[in-house]
Design a protein that fits this description.
By secondary structure, this protein is of the alpha+beta class. Helices cover about 25% and strands about 30% of the residues. It is built from five helices and 14 strands. The chain has helices spanning about 35-50, 80-95, 120-125, 130-140, 235-240; strands at about 1-5, 15-20, 25-30, 55-60, 65-70, 105-110, 145-150, 155-160, 175, 180-185, 185-190, 195, 200-205, 225-230. The strands form three sheets. A seven-stranded mixed β-barrel has the order 6-13-10-11-8-7-14, surrounded by four helices. Strands 1-2-3-5-4 form a five-stranded antiparallel β-sheet, covered by helices on one side. A two-stranded antiparallel ribbon has the order 9-12. Strand 7 (about 145-150) and strand 8 (about 155-160) form a beta hairpin. The protein is elongated, with a radius of gyration of 20 Å. The chain starts with a strand and ends with a helix.
Length: about 240
């Protein structure tokens, strides 16, 4: 584990270098989930990605850290954990400008409740609110895409208000349909394909979250700002049928 030296400015937060095996280094900026820390990770990831270092195969931001994947060539010419750690420390010490982050504003139509949101009533009961109040709470503010994970195009969004601090279901479902919009722990996930999952399903979107033939394949990207737009079942069917 490596602690960064005292940052030269407020634009350069503290971080820790955590080696993960012989092909990955994790740059950790904290242990909480909030928008400011998420933006720091996105900005750091972009700065590291823009460096275009030979041997680095991927740079992946998450809620509170950035994973730097690399490929040692075994001949002494590729990056090592020590050399890459030095490069990362030197680059981030230059500062992580906030304006390095730029996301899109995207509206995601959601049909809440009914067959599309089987857990809406349970979430409302747990929060002590009505189903309509949960829908309003979930859709009234934009949510930031923190990361993609678990499956291609699987977006994690938040952070929602405290009433949506609902635990995951005690028993996960073996199959959650594509497009399901689910909440837990003040976050939202949107299932891009049929997957197992234990989050509370409150609605569904008719949009396709992941399409290998599309560029980019994932509809949502880290840093995007999402507004959930309530729609009626008829609108859900119309949009779904209109997609290829």
């Amino acid at each position: 584990m490596h602690d960064s030296s005292e940052p030269p400015s407020s634009a350069c937060p503290r971080w820790r270098i955590l080696p993960q095996g012989d092909r990955c280094i994790v740059v950790s900026f904290g242990d909480r989930i909030d928008a400011d820390l998420g933006r720091t990770c996105l900005a750091a990831a972009r700065k590291l990605r823009d460096a275009r270092w030979a041997g680095v195969t991927d740079v992946v931001p998450s809620f509170a850290a950035v994973a730097v994947h690399y490929r040692p060539d075994g001949l002494g010419n590729g990056p090592t954990c020590a050399s890459l750690t030095d490069r990362i420390n030197a680059l981030l010490a230059e500062g992580i400008p906030a304006d390095a982050v730029g996301g899109r504003d995207i509206d995601i139509p959601v049909c809440y409740g009914g067959e599309h949101g089987p857990d809406l009533a349970d979430v409302a009961h747990a929060a002590g609110l009505s189903p309509d109040a949960i829908i309003a709470l979930h859709s009234q503010r934009r949510s930031m895409v923190f990361m993609l994970g678990f499956a291609p195009g699987h977006a994690y969004l938040g952070v929602h208000d405290e009433p949506l601090n609902i635990p995951r279901r005690p028993s996960p479902r073996t199959a959650v349909p594509a497009g399901a919009v689910a909440v837990a722990n003040r976050q939202t996930v949107i299932y891009p394909s049929r997957l197992p999952g234990g989050w509370n399903i409150i609605g569904a979107t008719p949009l396709t979250l992941f399409d290998p033939a599309r560029a980019p394949a994932a509809l949502l990207q880290p840093g995007d700002s999402v507004r959930f737009v309530p729609i009626a079942p008829e609108e859900f069917d119309r949009i779904r049928k209109g997609q290829p």
